[in-house]
């Protein structure tokens, strides 16, 4: 029945203060108040409905996304929302769109790589959305290999301009979000050529479309690259293709914080590391880690609530069947994902601090922590997105057949989420960056200082690399193993940041205790999953492995009465979850049944096509099929 909380009995089992945990999850009392208010504002506004998305054609979906983006912007203006509130509104609208790239990449790139003068010119236009930007780095032929990009930017001292050109088919810009149909400007990455000399890849602000009638400017061939994975909402994003035909831009539209080109045609490399050209990627990667905790927590919320609702087998004397959440197999699949959602939340908080710290240092020209920041953002982006994509799929499977319905919210969540394993740095490529950082760390330790902890094994690897073949060839030969080492290094980071979080003051009855249980689940699940490595290196004995497994089962039993409260702490509205299986009141079956009849296929009892195809079949009126 509507209005009845079918999960009340579960909520009454909770052994901790859920409201206090909501503040821990939000990050602070202020963050909770803002999130709670904005999520309810979005959920209560019909202008932001999303339950009909799966029935729209791609063009309808895209146009609806434009409508929502404009409506969101009007809401932000009319309600005088702050930047923080506006970002929360875009988050809870939950629609992949050009605004993600405008706010998430275009603006950070100008802030990170533009001079003061360039920031003063372009940021006010971008903040007021008087221009709409995209981040055009990837090309048809190159994405991971940034230094392999082929678009050229040739300086013409006669006119004090750069000539942006796509010399080959593979140099076509390909994938940038917002580029296909909406963006008026791009940060375009191109190989700088000054006085006939190549100077590496740099960023350039290029206007793509007229601000009067939105038509592509001369020399621009631009469009959408076509449908993407599944029928998911990511098809609302106009990932585009762009070819430049000798497009001229003023010299002052090269982003010149890192390097400069003078009007005389001199190339100047300031003492800022050239890697700052990659700065926007550092920023986005750290946001992607926080994003992973959100996406995984959504899937876990759905699967946990449904696991408490669903009963299957186990009826005694005609009594109720067993809740599937009580099966140890269900717990051993679900609860490590619940623990991971919290773990990624806290490592994401730490990474946000690390990024802010490195940014502050960079402003003082202190580049000492840039390598560490790169390794951490790259590695944690890789680790958390892989685990989250796998975790969303596992949550779909945990919900049985109903998990495969669009109305469960899980297929769409998966389809929209999985490219995170590829964009902003393909996950293996990023782990190789971490491996390179680890190897460099080890080689710098020198003979007097042996590596310890998770990089202790690197001594053997380093010896092998130096004696058997050159370091470079050794690295390539052992790269698959080094990627595993990089993952282990990042897992250590996640566990250690969870432990550090527990050393903080955490108010609320039973809250810290619950987090300690989740931290232990996360760590022991990893030990169980990788026990082969731990055993073969003598880090643990078979007895330790058995103890860990026993302890895991005990910890699952401790989580069980608190599972619903732990996902309630995410404080997601039913609108944001977009899932009948995960609805707050657990009233699943009537909602599933009601939703089925809303499908367009049920608009007629006899389907289109019956008289044309089925009736002739049934009446044996089909002549022998033409071969
Ligand atoms: C939730 C998201 C929210 C907002 C985002 C908006 C929308 C969401 C949707 C989609 C967004 C996705 C957008 C994109 O995908 S943009 C394109 C992303 N592309 C990439 O990530 C390319 C990946 N490739 C690279 O980063 C580099 O090519 C490389 C793999 C790192 C190799 O670099 P390269 O210069 O060729 O050579 P190396 O010799 O390996 O490195 C030299 C040197 O530099 C150091 N380094 C490398 N990168 C960085 C960095 N980013 N910061 C700092 N330092 C860096 C590297 O460690 C090495 O240092 P050494 O000391 O070892 O020499
Ligand atoms: C949904 C989506 C949105 C995107 N948005 C944008 C955007 O807004 N702007 C933008 O510029 N780009 C965007 N991209 C592009 C994205 O950044 C690239 O796809 C990504 O960087 C991966 O590069 P790639 O496609 O060239 O993959 P590749 O590098 O070709 O990877 C293919 C395979 O080769 C392997 N590989 C590559 N190099 C190595 C190596 N050195 N050693 C070992 N293995 C290797 C990889 O691990 C992978 O298995 C987007 C992509 C997607 C899917």
TrEMBL record:
InterPro entries with a match to the protein in the record: ACOX_C_alpha1, Acyl-CoA_ox_N, Acyl-CoA_Oxase/DH_mid-dom_sf, Acyl-CoA_oxidase, Acyl-CoA_oxidase_C, AcylCo_DH-like_C, AcylCoA_DH/ox_N_sf, AcylCoA_DH/oxidase_NM_dom_sf
Record carries keyword Oxidoreductase: yes
Localization per Swiss-Prot or TrEMBL: Peroxisome
Stretches assigned to the Acyl-coenzyme A oxidase N-terminal domain: 17-132
UniProt-annotated binding residues for FAD: 138, 177
GO biological process: fatty acid beta-oxidation using acyl-CoA oxidase; lipid homeostasis; long-chain fatty acid metabolic process
Active site, per annotation: 424 (proton acceptor)
Protein origin, superkingdom: Eukaryota
A GO cellular-component term linked to this record: peroxisome
GO molecular function: acyl-CoA oxidase activity; FAD binding; fatty acid binding
Segments forming domain Acyl-CoA oxidase C-alpha1: 278-439
Cofactor: FAD
Acyl-CoA oxidase C-terminal domain span: 462-619
Protein name: Acyl-coenzyme A oxidase
Classification of source organism: Eukaryota, Viridiplantae, Streptophyta, Embryophyta, Tracheophyta
